[in-house]
Amino acid sequence: MVAPASSTSPVDIQDIKIKISWYGYTKEGVAKFGKPTLQIPAKRVPDAANKLLMHYRENHLPKEIFREFIERIGTPKIKELLQEFTTIPAGDPKMYEDLGAEGVAFKMEMGQGECAA
């Protein structure tokens, strides 16, 4: 998962998203790289992860581990399952609070960028 790079320009709240890559791993003699799949706002990632895990719990084959399940259902199904989490619901002010600063309203302001430090 990759967070957006810092910038000195104003950022639209819709741009503050986590890039979800499904899905890479290594094992003896195998290296598989993840594919960018969706961008999900950081505050919605826990709900998205919960939905995906519940889908696994309800639909995996006997003795099928999560990695195998993800490979079997494929990227299109993952996108379908998690699409609802790619936007920020209108009218929910808590979605505009910074993580770790709950109760402090989000303010659109320009801060000192890395290049100016």
Strand line-up in the sheet with most strands? 1-4
Radius of gyration in whole Å, from Cα? 17 Å
Number of helices: 2
- Shape from CA axes? extended
Distance between the termini: 26 Å
The main β sheet shows up as: 2 strands, antiparallel
Number of strands: 4
Low-confidence stretches: 1-17
User: Can you write the helix and strand succession as a string?
Assistant: EEEEHH
State the secondary-structure class: alpha+beta
Helical percentage: 25-40%
Percent of residues in beta strands: 15-25%
Mean pLDDT: 75
Written description of the protein model:
- This protein has 117 residues and is an alpha+beta fold.
- The protein has a domain at 15-88.
- It contains 2 helices and 4 strands, in the order ββββαα.
- The protein has helices spanning 45-59, 66-82; strands at residues 17-22, 25-27, 30-32, 35-41.
- It has a two-stranded antiparallel ribbon with strand order 1-4.
- Helix 1 (45-59) packs across helix 2 (66-82).
- The two termini are 26 Å apart.
- Mean pLDDT is 75; it is low at 1-17.
State the main characteristics.
alpha+beta; extended; single chain
Question: What's the gist of this structure?
Answer:
The chain has helices at residues 45-59, 66-82; strands at residues 17-22, 25-27, 30-32, 35-41. It is α+β, with helices and mostly antiparallel strands. The radius of gyration is 17 Å and the shape is extended.
